[in-house]
Amino acid sequence: MMTTSSYTVTQPEKASKTPGSSDSPPGNWFRRYFKRLWFFICGAYICTLDMIENLFIKAPKIEIEKMEKRSEQVVVMTGGPRGIGFDIVKKLLQLDYTVILGVRNESASQKGIDKIRDLGVTTGRIKFLYLDLKSLESVREFAKEVLASKEGSRIDMLLNNAGIVNEYYEITEDNFESTFQVNYLSHFLLTNLLLPRIKETAAKKGGGDPCHIVNTSSSTQRFGTIDFDELETSKVYSQLKCYYVSKLCQIIHAKMLEKKFQEEKMNIHAYAVHPGVIATDLWEDMGRFECMSRPYNTVMKWIGRTSDEGANTVLHAALTPEVLEKWGGKYFETGKVVRPHNQANQPELRKKLWDRSLELTAIPV
Ligand SMILES: NC(=O)c1ccc[n+]([C@@H]2O[C@H](COP(=O)([O-])OP(=O)(O)OC[C@H]3O[C@@H](n4cnc5c(N)ncnc54)[C@H](OP(=O)(O)O)[C@@H]3O)[C@@H](O)[C@H]2O)c1
Ligand SMILES: *[C@@H]1O[C@H](CO)[C@@H](O)[C@H](O)[C@H]1NC(C)=O
Ligand SMILES: *[C@@H]1O[C@H](CO)[C@@H](O)[C@H](O)[C@H]1NC(C)=O
């Protein structure tokens, strides 16, 4: 396995190194470690608070069995049926949605679906399409296929669920730091590419049940101060800092979108949500001292949220119309609106992020 001091980029699937990718993370050793430690402390603090809160305040419940089936409706979701995604997909299938999943490995994802079916869920339909969020090209291809498919003739909900923390500094083929691209930029592009179809769907539905765009953000966004000088790459690499920033970017984007929808009087709501602290594979990818590996994970399994509760938390607002009518565009934790990082409330900064993201994804304004 890896040695403690190695910082090389892991190159699992794509063997050939992409131009511009870097083996050594920016920043000198000392500053990197200092930064790493600092953001680890921030994260550990917020996640521990979260878990303590979880002991007293329960995740919002949604009673799937009592809900109306959504047999006509279509959800597009990023990431496969594992982690929180597993329970989200399960609930969507229970509600008889058609779910288009953007995944990297279809056979691995099929196993997840088989498990859901084994649990006795017979309703709903799944369609897999290839999506690698580390590549903008792949995002474009995915969007094209979604829009051309029979299932994608309407989109009632877009769930931007996939997310990573990358222990290693990795520059993608598009020359962006991988966490920023996977968690934020690729989803930004995907949202923009699918938006016309979402708008069509909302218009077709008329009033009543709105369309939704949902982002799984994270409570750690509180520590994700955006610095435009190191947005797409880092000056001094810290995987957690990149993660926090990417999660704040998502919230800001939700706000921008919701405003646009209101201006255009579209029946679409966007929101961002923190699912809770949940023991999933995400924690394994964080780095050796960040996850304090096993002990913290074990505590999390005991007092953190279950992924079922996480899925409820994510879907709660979308499936509870009263909530979004009042609170669209907001950031949620445990079913409640929470004030995010100050930067999310700065209109100039929001605009700057939007413009920069458009520029980076090369969409004509
Ligand atoms: N767990 C927590 O405590 C926690 C807390 C706050 C926020 N969140 C957020 O919740 C979301 C789900 O996290 P999780 O805990 O369920 O994590 P997870 O178990 O690690 O799952 C990550 C998901 O992201 C997908 N993914 C990763 N890289 C991808 C790429 N390059 N292209 C396409 N898909 C990719 C994975 O798909 P594959 O199956 O193809 O690998 C997988 O479905 C994330 O956005 C995370 O930031 C989690
Ligand atoms: C996809 O997942 C399966 C396990 O379900 C694995 O055997 C296979 O190697 C994976 N394919 C790729 C390209 O990673
Ligand atoms: C979600 O985040 C993506 C970027 O990650 C952004 O494009 C999209 O507008 C956001 N939507 C919501 C509802 O937060």
Question: What is this structure, in a nutshell?
Answer:
The chain has 365 residues and is an alpha/beta fold. Helix content is 45%, strand content 11%.
Task: Please render the helix and strand layout as text.
Layout: H1 29-56, E1 74-78, H2 84-94, E2 98-103, H3 106-118, E3 125-130, H4 136-148, E4 157-160, H5 178-205, E5 211-216, H6 239-263, E6 268-274, H7 293-303, H8 307-319, H9 321-327, E7 331-333, E8 336-337, H10 347-361
Parallel strand pairs: 1-2, 1-4, 2-3, 4-5, 5-6, 6-7
Antiparallel strand pairs: 7-8
Helix pairs in contact: 2-8, 4-5, 5-6, 5-10, 6-10
Protein name: Short-chain dehydrogenase TIC 32, chloroplastic
InterPro entries: NAD(P)-bd_dom_sf, SDR_fam
Transmembrane segments: 37-57
